[in-house]
Amino acid sequence: MSDPSSRLSPFHALLGEGGVVTDADSLIRYTHDQRALMQGQTPGVLRPRSTEEVQAIVRLAVHLGFGLVPQGGNTGYVGGATPEPGRGQLVVSFERMNRIRSVDAAGFTLACDAGTILADAQAAAEAQGCLLPLSLGAEGSCRLGGNVGTNAGGLQVLRYGMTRDLVLGLEVVLPDGSLFSDMRTLRKNNIGYDLKQLFIGAEGTLGLVTGVVLKLWPAQTRRATAWLQLAANAPIPEIAALVRRETADLASTFELISASSLALVADMRGADLGLAAGPGGAVLLELSASSERIPLDDVLLGTLEALIEAGHVEDAVLAQSERQRREMWTIRETIPEAEKHAGGSVKLDIAVPTSAVSSFLERAGAVVAAEAPGTRLSFYGHVGDGNIHFNLMVPAGRDRLAFTREVEAGIAHAVYAVAVDLGGSFSAEYGIGRFKRDLLVRYGEPNRLALLSAIKRAIDPHGVMNAGAMI
Amino acid sequence: MSDPSSRLSPFHALLGEGGVVTDADSLIRYTHDQRALMQGQTPGVLRPRSTEEVQAIVRLAVHLGFGLVPQGGNTGYVGGATPEPGRGQLVVSFERMNRIRSVDAAGFTLACDAGTILADAQAAAEAQGCLLPLSLGAEGSCRLGGNVGTNAGGLQVLRYGMTRDLVLGLEVVLPDGSLFSDMRTLRKNNIGYDLKQLFIGAEGTLGLVTGVVLKLWPAQTRRATAWLQLAANAPIPEIAALVRRETADLASTFELISASSLALVADMRGADLGLAAGPGGAVLLELSASSERIPLDDVLLGTLEALIEAGHVEDAVLAQSERQRREMWTIRETIPEAEKHAGGSVKLDIAVPTSAVSSFLERAGAVVAAEAPGTRLSFYGHVGDGNIHFNLMVPAGRDRLAFTREVEAGIAHAVYAVAVDLGGSFSAEYGIGRFKRDLLVRYGEPNRLALLSAIKRAIDPHGVMNAGAMI
């Protein structure tokens, strides 16, 4: 193998100034995942500005024998965008492909480059009186290609679905450099296999997503938000079902916050939060509507009265101002940072059927108490969708990476076993990446894995695309 | 080749009494598509009662060299379930696999066999206080496996999406007889490629769907319905957008009915309908909600006032009773029958971006007037989703099949060209089947078709599954 830097000269020629990053200091932010659980390696980062440049990159990579790892905002939790040491993979960063291509306010669609930052796409929709409902903690830095590659979930799945449910069109550079372009803004189009579905959630292993068309909704001009203190043993599935019914599915957020997660936030702030959990934890509930004709405050109030009457909720606080609403949201959004501040956590991203959320919490809590007594938990999340971020805090004085490995080799499987027994899964929204490959094999049915490999071979026979991720 | 009936004896042994149909009279309802545009042929129809029997059928078929054509209610419009003359394909009918497996009312999911009639699944959901929103004209006889295979659309896509958007889980017998089972009721589950997406809309060409898990919603306990008379040149996209916004997306139906389609219904009934179209046609608009807390009548009234004020709507009738609501719906649902009664139609199932519906109608109408003067049109449909059933009536005295061929070879392409020019498609919800294979090739991009074939080869290398459909 010749000197890597000279092997990259065709890419320099192709991409021009700022198009290839090779100096060690600059590489760090591309080679380390955001939680610094993995230190990757790459001969260089390629920064194309157009779909045509991405096609040329792929053709060159095939010709020169480089593997490629696509990267958006590098905000993933499973190392899916981290180039593996020893593989000599080039990173393709989409940070210079961030153009909003079009917004159709009457048709409620938005088309943009894959490198568009989620918050920028949200703002472009909002400027036209529309809502792009994909919303997650990393929205200020994650990029839409990454959201598509990981089928991102987030805070409003309950009402609007996952990223897959929002995607109308995709543009993808295939492993031979050819282009699959299906950027039509159609809501209905039954013309053979819906091939774009393959690339959503594929973590860049089948091609490089360069463009996205998303569904929009009318901008939500009214909101009603409440903080619920749950009664002891409050049945979360029944509460969520009652909320859906009573609010006519205008609830866009139903987030559980455990007392322990709330305590972490208070610890970090060093101050009383002004909001407390009940014996069963707390729920952040938000309704939203695009029309003044819906009496949203009345709907919320009536729903809360029904919950209190049923004995599920002890007390509730209605946000009386945008400031108070922001306070409630900040608490929810600060939990990951508060976990980090307290020494870090091992994040288990559990999915169960919505109706099994309470059973899961009870059984998984008991498992951890029995097998790893004294371990502090922080659990919270999108329980209206059956998604629980069930995190084990790193004990004081323990090395974070060592504890992570210990949990992942042991107690994590006991927790996954509870989820699987309830018809659930070890990955709700984070994906597989490089950290959960073993889990995919361990919990994947053989027929499913065989089919997955057959698809990978059919589309990427030479393994150019993100080798080491997922499979 | 040996005598076909003796070649079927292993299937008789496998499926027992009533399991194999071979007599000519009984075969007719399986070998003719519902519009009798194609007369198919088959050595026999297989009627399994379980997933295991379907697996055994596939293994036997591979061994004996039979191709298979899956069939649900045989209500499709494109010949996708019709065995082709000369191919010796066996039909696999799912009519004996019609069990509701489970309904989870708190988790809002329903699991059932692929042969379940859509209306039966709707009823099972309703019995538990839930809504299965998939709704189409054929719901009393179509079966869910067929809905999945064709990614059926229908009357409530505007709010709830296509069949794809409703599917949480699938069970599929693969072309080698092995089982792909992903019947979990999870709303979030990111564990590698979402393989079930491949089988949705694949028209049975990749495997035989045997089980389905569907999302449910809270039962809609309130409805508000109106008949709108559109003003001349009323901008349909702007009206649909205003309706979405003003009703907070509680509109579940927004159906255009042209004056010409309405006239067909009146002709068939031989009576005044009591409801008229405006110069721009009529719209059937329905809002629905699961909660008494939403003042649905006020929301509808306010929305209609806004539409009249904007000059888009000349007049509107609010349904004052369930009887009046049913009358409005019956008119809409009777259009296909009225077309048949008037001598039949050639159905063009157009999709355009929602914002291009008015442009399409204007341009396509002009094209037909210029190239086939005197042709009577009947257009209607789910224009809130950009889907227009744009049908050309068979002229009095013309042979239906001959006229169909003439249109499909000529003027249809001029209409498709308008749709494609607006970023649209020649098939919104009917699919490809056997009638639109040529269109798929004519309008499909080469890279897309190559990928489609690669997937077919990877999963069904011996072409066992529904050969001749789609590709």
Automatic annotation (TrEMBL), chains A, B:
PROSITE patterns: FAD_PCMH. It comes from the Bacteria. Keywords: FAD, Flavoprotein. One of its GO terms (molecular function) is catalytic activity. GO terms for biological process: respiratory electron transport chain. Residues 38-219 form the FAD-binding PCMH-type domain. Belongs to the FAD-binding oxidoreductase/transferase type 4 family. This is FAD-linked oxidoreductase. It comes from Methylobacterium gregans.
